[in-house]
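agent: user wants the full assembly modeled, not chains individually. Plan: 1) parse entity lines 2) check alphabet per entity 3) run joint structure prediction 4) return tokens. Steps 1-2 passed, two entities, 575 residues total. Proceeding.
--- entities ---
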Amino acid sequence: MSTPCYEFFCPVKIIAGVKSLEHIPHELANFSAFRPLVITDQGVKNAGLIQHIDDAFNSSDINIVDIFDDVPPDSSTLLVTQIADLYRKLDCDSIIAIGGGSVIDTSKGVNILVSEGGDDVTAYSGVDSLKKPLKPFFVIPTTAGTGSEVTSVAVIADTVKNTKVVFTCSFLLPNVAILDPRMTKTLPPKITAATAMDALTHAIEAFTCMGKNPLSDSYATAAISKISQNIINVMDNPSDEMGRLELAQASTMAGIAFSNSMVGLIHALGHSLGATCHIPHGVCMNIFLPHALDYNLRHGESILGEILLPLAGAEAYANTPSNQRPQAVIDYIHKLKDKLHTRCQLPRSLKETGRVEQAQFAKIVELTVDDAALILNPIEVDREDAMAILKRAW
Amino acid sequence: MKKETNTLKTKLRDGYLNTMLGVIARTLCAMSKFDATLQKELEGVPENFILQMKVLPNVASMSVQKNSKGQLDYLGKEPNKGQKANVVIAIKHPELAFLVFSFQENNAQAFARNRTIIEGDLSMAMRMIRCISHLEVYILPKAAAKKALKRYPAISFLEKTRTAAKIYGHLTLDLLPGKTT
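--- prediction returned ---
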């Protein structure tokens, strides 16, 4: 049952489709922003995607002040401080983030510092710590998974404490998100698969966790449907621009859903595994998704079966007795994982990552029970439960 | 101009909220002196860490601090002068707080319904929430505790009674004249 009282908020202007990038100069001018700093990573640069942005700014009266293109896959609070210094030094007035989750979350951290002041972004961690709007912030996702372009959350590694710092506040939401099919077309197969599974997890947790509400449900189910209908097709036809746009839109919709309902156990496990073993977030989600759903189901979670309709389609839903639908959802996800593994060797288990030792389980468990995502998991999870799930996912 | 209606009802509600927060704070401190589960949770909390729980706007509040012995001390409604709470858990309105403290909504539901704000280190907040949930198992009647928690642990009536007696025993000692907490 949806929660009887809820809040829903998504003020992000979304510009999606062909030639969307060319809207950016006009949108910046709407915010009286004329000195943007671009924040991106080497992958985006090497894929030649910056050229599309440069082209979009040709024939406009706005120039990009500088491009910071060295955000690593696992960014840190120290890097946030470094980029904020660059922004101040160059007297920029806005930020354009181009990349995946790490670039976008790093840029959110930079926006906190350049708007609020200071050098230590962790001072603004937690929920609703920011009290005023930040600088104009545009996001161009180059993966279809994090949904970070429409979320009020940023997760940034604190390399000193070796943990992830979580920031949650509506002021972190970008002003504009641009979904242009050119920007995801060159995404490698393994990252395409991992980020799609990340988006699928966002949508499923948004739908099954305690913060669910009628509006987030509608985004979540639509996102699940788009992902299940397009993921294998895009894996088999990587240059299918419209298929990729569907995944990008699904990712954004899943982002809107979970930003307004939050996530649960799968993300708590994923954050902890990522922080301990430095495994990409999408891979963590792919590994834990069916196991955590199974845990919740066995301990009394009751609405998982409803997902079968958007996930497997009307015929499969109608042909499955209602009491078997929850298990059918889990079986479907296992089969999807197998298909993706066949196509790009996306790890299905902790063992298949080749980067996890069972000796690390105790640390992962400790981080999991301390992860705020657990608050809204429908079922209580203690250390013993988390350890059992890790063993099942091995 | 703001006009307060039903003053008696409001005063009773606010008094109840202050009492409940005071009871939670003081019993949490008492339990931290002997309970192994609570002490294990507190091992991961830095010394001098301060938790503040409050009901906005300044309706009710409590603060506790971890001392050098790994136990919790009751600070009163606010941290001491010059100190700042490391984690603040705030409920947005006294009516919403009353839903929680009258067990019509549990803590997780209050979070899910955006009634609660957490400021500060979320992992420490999770640890302190686990401490409070553990406390509630013993100080609340089983029916109320089952509503307040997602999962009520398998404990015997004898264990519950024995631990509750210990908590109130330590609480009584804490409240004796000459004690600072």
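agent: reporting back. The beta strands of chain A are 13-16, 36-39, 66-68, 94-99, 126-127, 137-141, 153-158, 163-168, 176-179. The domain at 13-183 of chain A is CATH 3.40.50.1970 (Rossmann fold).
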